[in-house]
Structure formats: C-alpha cells, structure tokens
C-alpha cells in the first residue's frame, strides 16, 4: 500500500468524486438559468425603455413641428409685412398682435407639456409671446439660433434644470437670421416636463430612470438617488455607450444591471438600473440552501472517513513507517501496540520480526565489512605490478643503451616509489603525495622521451584533499602510452583540478591522436563491467575503487581534450572540511 494513496485519501477522493459532479451540474444549471434570466430581463427592460423613449420623442417632435405650422399662419405672415416708424403700434397692429398671442396660447394649450412660443420680427426688433410683446436683444437671439434642439442649463437652487429650445427662421437658409430674417419663431420647454414623465415611468415599476448626456448633464426623477446615480455616470463615462446598450456595472462591490436607450431626436440617453441582488435574490436563496445541504453532507462524510482513519489508517501508517525505517536499515524501530485488535497483533509480530533481523544482521554485517576491505586491498594491489612491469622494462632499455643517468634516476624514483607503495595500510593519502609520485613518473618518462612536456596546475585546497593511493598515476600512464607514444608529434600532458558544486574534479589532458565519440563510449561502457583480457586494469581499477569508496556519484569521464587528444576526468565528493573552507 502506497502512503500517498492510503485508505483515508481514497475515501476522501471517493466522496469528492460523488459530490463534485453534483455540485458542478447544479452550478452549471444555475449559471445557465441566471444567464437566461438576465437576457430576458435585459430584453424586457430595453423594450420598456424604448417604448418610453418613443413617447418622449413623439412629444418633442410634435413640439418641434409647431413653429413650422405657425410660420405659415396668415396673421403671422401679415405681421411679417409690418414696418413701423415709431415704437408704438397702431390699433390694427395691436389687434393683430392680440390675435397672434391668442393663437400662441391655443397652440401652447394643445399639449400637456408646459411650453412657451416666441415670435421675433427682426425688422421691427419686437418679440411677441402669449402674454407680452416687447423689444429683444438681437445679440442674445443670435446666440440662441442653432440647428436642432438647443439645450441650456438653468441653475435652480441646488438642482439643475435644462431649457430646450427650437427655432424656425423664415426665409430658410438666410445669412444672420437674427438681423435679416423676416420672422423667427422659438419654442421653449424645460426639463420639468421630462421629469414628470420620468416620475410616472418610475411609478410604473422602474427602479430609478434618468436622462443623461455626457457634455450636458443629467435629468433626474424627483426621488432619484443622486449619489448612486453620480457613481453610475462615472462608470458609464469610461466606455462609449451604444444606441441600445445593456451592461453590468459594479459600484461599491454591488453589481447593477444597467439598460440605456439613446434618443434619436435629442441625443440624450435614457438610463435605468437595478441591483442584481434584488433580481437574483430567490436564486441566491435557493443556492444557499443547496450548498448548505452539500456542506452538511460533506462534513458528515468526512466524519465517517475520520473514524475509519483513526481506527484503520493510523495503525497502518505506523506499520508503513516501521517498514520504511527498516528499509533504511534502522533495526531499532519498534511499534507500540494500541488496544486489542487485529492491528495490535500485527504490531507485536512486526516487533518480533525486526528483533530477529537485527540479531541476524549483527552477525552478517561484520563479515560484509571484512569482505569489502579485502576487495579494496586487492584492487589497490593490482595497480602495483602493472607499474613495476613498465619501470623494469624502461631500466632494461636504458641499461642496454648505457644510459647510466636514466638508470640512476629510475632507481632513485623506484626507491621513492617503494616508500610510497609500502604504505598499503593507508586507505587514503593526501593528494599532494599522489602528485609527487606522478611527478616522479613523468620525469622518468621525460628522460625516455625528450618531447614530453607536462604541467601540473592544482590549488592548495585541492592538494589537501585525501584520495585513495595510486589513483592518478594510471591516468597519466595511460596518456603517455596510448596518447603520446602512439603519436610522434604529441608530447604535452596537463594535470589540473577544480572544485565545483561540492565535487572534486581532477583532469588529465594530452595532445595525442585521441579517440572518436564511439570509441570513447565503448571504453566507458567497459569500465562499468568486469575486467577482461582485452582491457588493461589501470582505468578499470581506478573507476572501481572510486565507486567503492565514494558511491555511484564518483567515477571517470572521458571526453575530447582542448589540447587535441583525450581528457580523462576523475570526480568524487569533496570532503566537508574543504567545503567549509
């Protein structure tokens, strides 16, 4: 049984497998229902806003047609042809003005909106309204004449009102109508008319409708929440509104469904909004009930799983930990039985088994240590005959050539070699002694071959490392025999080392003919197997001793050397005292 897939985990996973699909299906169904409800509400709200907007537009378009009708009235046409030399009208003109005022009054009374009509005569410099006839400021009129509806803000206490005006000029298209037109008719109404309609619209069930135009202002209903509406306008001003728009706006963490319809007549947006919480409240209550039931069911399931965990999983985990410590060769592990059940019986039998294994290993372990030490000594001793054969062969050759100096030098180095190799009782030696021994060997080979040049580049920290004896010399000998002797143009050997990522790396390079990639891989493969007759014991012996002493992370690597020949590297974990330094 795996610790990561124990009984308790399986039970919890099984509970989740049963409950999660139910929750996900409910969530998906609820999500789709909410989406459909939102779409239907948006569609319904947009239709109601468009209907109300059409009503307002109809009133405004009707009002804008009045000046076009009045400008063709006979009395107004007669008033257009009057030219007065004095500032007082004669009796006929006064009667004409009264008839015009009566017609303006009748026209204003034809609508339930509060409106005002003004008749301007630029030739007379006079203006006629329902109740008055007098002079006007031509410059003020000139500033009010524009195409379409002109909207002017009027400050009324703490509230803003807007004055809408529509001006018709006769004849149409004349330059500077305020001075040159025959007749100018202006219609005015203020935003209280629209506010009255908004109040009625709100009484019909809308939340808080208002009119909004970014460069002009806002027409509120009389019971509007001004603060919330202001925050909403700030949100709407960020993105450009469409002619018919539906969006969700979040204000102070509360989402609001906002519907807008643009008036094609005035360019104002009719906006209405409502909190989604009020719309989705029944669905949220249903969700709370469902999720509460799921949580209760989940808690009950966890309680049952916990009981099984305490009664079954805890004893099983104790047995697992015991076996894991036993696997790590900790034979002192014991389990304390709890209660009197099947698991206490297993715990007692486990303790008995471990005690017997511990006794057995105490006897066998010492024998294994002796066998391991014997093998290390045997591998270490294999290196010596191989080197002796080469040295004696060299002495014989030098004696035949009557090279007394070489024989003396070799004999002197052999005496130093004897002193080094007779300390076979030592498992490790300082690397500095091993390098001195390698230097002696290279000096002997240098006598035999003048073209041999060598360089040893090792820091003091590396030289203080302790290594198994006779572990570097076989690499150097391999470079001389297989690298330099086989290539008449070769002669350089370099020994270097470094400490990297907690590992000591010692490298021997030569400039011989080297080996191709396939040959290098084949040699590395042979080093990991048993020694055969075709392969010398030098490299194999070094690799085996490194791995026996330092483990699998130590060993030999063979690559192409920057000198052109072969690079053989030894790597082993650095001693802790040198890492601390």
What this model shows, in words?
Pfam families: HAMP (PF00672), HATPase_c (PF02518), His_kinase (PF06580). Keywords: Cell membrane, Kinase, Membrane, Phosphoprotein, Transferase, Transmembrane, Transmembrane helix. It comes from Paenibacillus pabuli. GO terms for molecular function: kinase activity. The two termini are 45 Å apart. Strand 7 (210-213) and strand 8 form a beta hairpin. The relative contact order is 0.06. The chain is of the alpha+beta class. The strands form four sheets. A six-stranded antiparallel β-sheet has the order 3-2-1-6-5-4. It has a five-stranded antiparallel β-sheet with strand order 8-7-11-10-9, sandwiched between helices. Strands 13-15-16-18-17 form a five-stranded mixed β-sheet. 55% of the residues lie in helices and 19% in strands. Helix 10 packs antiparallel against helix 11 (404-421). It is elongated, with a radius of gyration of 53 Å.
Biggest sheet features:
6 strands, antiparallel
Uncertain runs are 1-5
Shape: elongated
Strand content: 15-25%
What is the arithmetic mean of pLDDT?
A: 80
Helix share bin: 40-55%
Could you say which structural class the secondary elements and strand pairing correspond to? alpha+beta
User: Largest sheet, order of strands side by side?
Assistant: 3-2-1-6-5-4
Task: Give the end-to-end Cα distance, rounded to a whole number of Å.
Answer: 45 Å
| Beta strand count | 18
How many helices? The count is 17
Please state the CA-atom Rg, rounded to the nearest Å: 53 Å
């Amino acid at each position: 049984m795996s610790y990561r897939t124990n009984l308790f985990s399986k039970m919890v996973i099984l509970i989740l497998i049963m409950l999660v699909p139910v929750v996900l299906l409910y969530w998906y169904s609820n999500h789709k229902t909410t989406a459909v409800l939102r779409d239907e509400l948006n569609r319904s709200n947009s239709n109601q806003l468009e209907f109300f907007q059409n009503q307002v537009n109809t009133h405004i378009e009707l009002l804008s047609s009045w000046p076009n009708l009045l400008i063709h009235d006979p009395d107004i046409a007669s008033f257009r042809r009057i030219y007065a030399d004095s500032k007082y009208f004669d009796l006929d003109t006064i009667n004409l003005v009264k008839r015009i005022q009566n017609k303006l009054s009748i026209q204003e009374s034809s609508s339930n909106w509060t409106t005002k009509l003004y008749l301007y005569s630029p030739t007379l410099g006079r203006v006629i309204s329902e109740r008055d006839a007098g002079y006007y400021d031509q410059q003020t009129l000139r500033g009010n004449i524009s195409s379409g509806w002109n909207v002017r803000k009027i400050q009324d206490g703490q509230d803003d009102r807007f004055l809408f005006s529509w001006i018709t000029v006769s004849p149409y298209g004349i330059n500077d109508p305020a001075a040159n037109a025959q007749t100018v008719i202006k219609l005015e109404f203020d935003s209280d008319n629209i506010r009255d309609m908004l109040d009625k619209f709100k009484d019909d069930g809308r939340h808080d409708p208002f009119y909004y135009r970014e460069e002009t202002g806002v027409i509120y209903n009389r019971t509007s929440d001004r603060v919330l509406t202001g925050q909403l306008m700030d949100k709407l001003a960020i993105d450009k509104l469409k002619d018919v728009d539906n969006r969700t706006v979040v204000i102070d963490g509360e989402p609001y469904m906002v519907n807008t319809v643009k008036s094609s007549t005035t360019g104002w947006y009719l906006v209405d909004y409502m909190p989604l919480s009020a719309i989705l409240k029944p669905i949220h209550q249903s969700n709370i009930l469902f999720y509460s039931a799921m949580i209760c069911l989940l808690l009950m399931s966890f309680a049952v799983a916990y009981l099984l965990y305490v009664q079954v999983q805890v004893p099983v985990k104790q047995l697992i930990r015991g076996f894991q410590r036993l696997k790590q060769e900790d034979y002192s592990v014991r389990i304390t039985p709890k209660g009197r059940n099947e698991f206490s019986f297993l715990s007692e039998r486990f303790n008995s088994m471990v005690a017997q294994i511990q006794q057995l290993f105490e006897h066998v372990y010492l024998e294994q240590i002796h066998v391991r030490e014997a093998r290390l000594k045997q591998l270490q001793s294999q290196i010596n005959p191989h080197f002796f054969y080469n040295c004696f062969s060299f002495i014989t050759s030098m004696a035949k050539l009557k090279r007394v100096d070489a024989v003396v030098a070799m004999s002197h180095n052999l005496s130093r070699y004897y002193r080094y190799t007779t300390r076979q009782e030592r498992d490790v030696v300082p690397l500095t002694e091993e390098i001195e021994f390698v230097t002696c060997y290279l000096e002997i080979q240098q006598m035999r071959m003048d073209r041999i040049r060598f360089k040893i580049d090792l820091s003091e920290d590396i030289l203080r490392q302790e290594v198994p004896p006779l572990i570097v010399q076989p690499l150097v000998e391999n470079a001389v025999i297989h690298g330099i002797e086989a290539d008449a143009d070769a002669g350089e050997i370099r020994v270097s080392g470094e400490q990297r990522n907690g590992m000591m790396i010692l490298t021997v390079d030569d400039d011989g003919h080297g080996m191709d990639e396939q040959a290098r891989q084949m040699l590395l493969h042979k080093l990991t197997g048993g020694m055969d007759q075709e392969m010398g014991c030098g490299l194999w012996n070094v690799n085996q001793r490194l791995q026996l002493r330092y483990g699998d992370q130590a060993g030999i690597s063979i690559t192409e050397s920057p000198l052109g020949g072969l690079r053989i590297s030894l790597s082993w974990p650095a001693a802790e005292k040198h890492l601390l330094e």
